[in-house]
Amino acid sequence: MPVITEIEDLRRLYKRRVPKMFYDYAETGSWSETTFRENTTDFDLIRFRQRVAVDMAGRSTRTKMIGEEVEMPVGLGPVGLTGMQSADGEIKAARAAERFGVPFVLSTMSICSIEDVAAHTTRPFWFQVYTLKDDDFMQRLFDRARKAGCTAIVITVDLQVQGQRHKDIKNGMSAPPKLTPSSIANMMTKVPWGLEMLQTKRRFFGNIVGHASGVSDPSSLSSWTAEAFDPSLDWERIKQFKEMWGGKVIVKGIMDPEDARRAADAGVDAIVVSNHGGRQLDHALSSIRALPEVVKAVGDRLEVHFDGGIRSGQDVLKALALGAHATWSGRAWTYGLGAMGEAGVTKALEILRHELDVSMALCGRRHIEEVDPSILMVDDAFYSYKPAR
Ligand code: GLV
């Protein structure tokens, strides 16, 4: 087993262990993948101000996210199909999150169902929904989430239509995987993955198959999004979902201050600055560049969370310093899961916490609440994109 010291080690191991179709699904952006790449590389335009001889005893990364105690301000963001990255993947990740003390967000596009995850955990998780046309299906999802003890729903608002990901089309990506000569040849090189997969029955979209009607091919993400997603979504509809759910609501996919104000007007509890991991609008700003303006617009009205490009605790610290109340990461834990199952998710969380803790200390801060923009030095290029004139 290689020595794992950083998230990148987990990614490399994950690439070796999991079929190409599923690795590519996670490790992709839309079209030219410019936004996907810049989500990570733009963090490089930000530097820390190192401080010395500051009392660093009694440090803690603990804080709260929407009123819930967390070990560090990093949630496991919703990722589709993680039960294909490792057998029963969502259960493994939710367990790791529970033991570590951070929120787990279950994707509607998960392989394990809401009920499966609830049956294997005790910490309440959050449930992510897309905005679908079928009100009955939406109400049933909300009822199922309530029954499972979920304490918040996360409404993804940036996927009324799907950004094209070339690799998924070329790979014929589906769950369960379609058996073609090339997918079989590739899976035969992933023996431990395959053996585990043969031992579970969870190989379909557990929240959809048997629950949603009118979808021609429920194994295909793209057919489901094209047929079931609501292209007419607007803020009135979001308010309607908020009423149908009746609990805490987080809106994910906000990149613009104007949209952030609308979300605050709709009375939601938190928003997530996110461009869907660079998988939707290619050439949108990276999430980290979008963050400061959104914080300026609504930071005093609701919690602004951040998602996009987090691969280290230093990235977490930079986002917090730019005003995020907390962060989410999708790929970091997915790499861990694909690399080493539940232990890999725990490893990813430990790496992020250690990096966050040490970096915070070297910036002269002992608590998350003390992190502010004054710990940063930012390159002019970070602010270089301006509205067109
Ligand atoms: C689903 O939300 C995806 O980005 O694949």
TrEMBL record:
Active-site residue list: H276 (proton acceptor)
Domain FMN hydroxy acid dehydrogenase: from-to ranges: 1-381
PROSITE patterns per the UniProt record, alphabetical: FMN_HYDROXY_ACID_DH_1, FMN_HYDROXY_ACID_DH_2
GO terms of molecular function: FMN binding; L-lactate dehydrogenase (NAD+) activity
Coiled-coil intervals, chain numbering: none
Organism listed in the record: Tranquillimonas rosea
Amino-acid positions noted as binding FMN in the UniProt annotation, renumbered to this chain: 78-80, 107, 128, 130, 156, 252, 274, 307-311, 330-331
CDD domains the record matches: alpha_hydroxyacid_oxid_FMN
Chain residues that bind glyoxylate: Y25, R165, H276, R279
Keywords associated with the record: Flavoprotein, FMN, Oxidoreductase
Single Gene Ontology BP annotation: aerobic respiration
Name the UniProt record assigns to this protein: L-lactate dehydrogenase (Cytochrome)
GO CC terms in record: plasma membrane
InterPro entries: Aldolase_TIM, Alpha-hydoxy_acid_DH_FMN, FMN-dep_DH, FMN_HAD, FMN_hydac_DH_AS
Pfam families from the UniProt entry: FMN_dh
Family (UniProt): Belongs to the FMN-dependent alpha-hydroxy acid dehydrogenase family.
PANTHER family per UniProt: 2-HYDROXYACID OXIDASE 1, S -2-HYDROXY-ACID OXIDASE-RELATED
Top-level division of the source organism's lineage: Bacteria
Essential cofactor(s): FMN
